[in-house]
């Protein structure tokens, strides 16, 4: 039985050694879209402890060209789509910002961060919001394959959308933040590239923005993997509980790959500590390798802070400031 194992060098190997005696569970792959996490449901949940919050609405800007439902990859009959938010009258190539939605690798959708894409496009960034296969449709690493294909698609279509391919940013919230960190630390790693969509293009990125996404599924700080009351999001995504296959959970952790090739990273965090498990260890590796990072924590903010006022505008400003600093003179 093929398993994914972590080595001391923080790389993965395929092996035929059976390290667990449990069969991978496919019970969560039911083909039924999970709509439990939406902006509105997050708002209702967060309102209890934060009565001052409000959802950030989408807005129209005549200076932004919006194109929706662009197919970036086709897998069998399944078409994966993304949306593009491009500043009009762009004469020079710009920083590309690819934003991955959250929802526990099982729920959520790419419309979740339209306001953020619009706000950043208004500041001159070319923004993309890709969908990816969730755990109701396919298990890990399918989502990674999809999003690597999205990165390659952006690079392939750079001329059309006025993208500077040396300034690609991968960003995400919650599960999307974990995915962004994973993509950023495994650029061009053959095991996680997938095949059939925009092949032959380098999938590495030049900056990571992680909004409350875990850096490790096995770190002592993590809260992911508790199946005592119900099946956890991670167990659904991997098809194994953490106890059944700790090696796979470790191998799926961005912390397992951070190193000399990891790009500068911005961490934007809520007051929920478990949502950024492994962050300090991740930053230590960055520091040891002279790689720039920033951390901004919003005190008393709920986990879903990126979609709420009063944190939205400061968040946008932190992203803008970080990227301008990282890409100065590049």
TrEMBL record:
Keyword vocabulary terms for this entry: Hydrolase, Signal
GO MF annotation terms: hydrolase activity
Residue span, BD-FAE-like domain: 82-274
InterPro entries: AB_hydrolase_fold, BD-FAE-like_dom, GDXG_lipolytic_enzyme
Keyword Transport: no
Endpoints of the signal sequence: 1-23
Pfam family, one: BD-FAE
PANTHER family recorded: AB HYDROLASE SUPERFAMILY PROTEIN C4A8.06C, ALPHA_BETA HYDROLASE
Protein name per UniProt: Alpha/beta hydrolase
Organism name: Pinibacter soli
């Amino acid at each position: 039985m093929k398993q994914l194992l972590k080595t001391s060098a923080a790389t993965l190997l395929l092996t035929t050694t059976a390290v667990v005696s449990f069969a991978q569970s496919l019970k969560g792959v039911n083909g039924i879209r999970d709509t439990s996490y939406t902006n509105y449901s997050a708002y209702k949940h967060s309102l209890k402890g934060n009565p001052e919050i409000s959802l950030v609405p989408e807005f129209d800007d005549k200076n932004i060209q919006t194109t929706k439902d662009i197919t970036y990859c086709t897998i069998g009959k399944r078409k994966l789509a993304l949306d593009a938010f491009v500043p009009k009258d762009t004469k020079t190539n710009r920083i590309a910002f690819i934003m991955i939605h959250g929802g526990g690798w099982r729920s959520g959708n790419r419309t979740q961060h339209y306001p953020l894409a619009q706000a950043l496009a208004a500041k001159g960034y070319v923004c993309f919001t890709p969908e990816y296969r969730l755990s109701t449709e396919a298990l890990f690493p399918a989502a990674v394959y999809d999003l690597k294909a999205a990165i390659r698609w952006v690079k392939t279509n750079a001329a059309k959308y006025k993208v500077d391919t040396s300034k690609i940013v991968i960003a995400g919230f919650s599960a999307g933040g974990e995915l962004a960190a994973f993509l950023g630390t495994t650029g061009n790693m053959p095991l996680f590239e997938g095949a059939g969509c925009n092949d032959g293009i380098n999938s590495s990125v030049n900056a990571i923005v992680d909004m409350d996404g875990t850096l490790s599924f096995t770190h002592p700080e993590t809260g992911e993997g508790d199946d005592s009351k119900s099946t956890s999001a991670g167990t659904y995504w991997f098809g194994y509980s953490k106890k059944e296959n700790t090696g796979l959970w470790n191998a799926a952790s961005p912390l397992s790959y951070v190193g000399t090739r990891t790009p500068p990273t911005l961490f934007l965090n809520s007051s929920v500590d478990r949502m950024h498990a492994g962050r300090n260890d991740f930053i230590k590796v960055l520091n040891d390798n002279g790689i720039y990072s920033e951390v901004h924590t919003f005190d008393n903010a709920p986990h879903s802070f990126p979609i709420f006022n009063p944190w939205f505008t400061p968040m946008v400003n932190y992203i803008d400031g970080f990227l301008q600093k990282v890409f100065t003179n590049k």
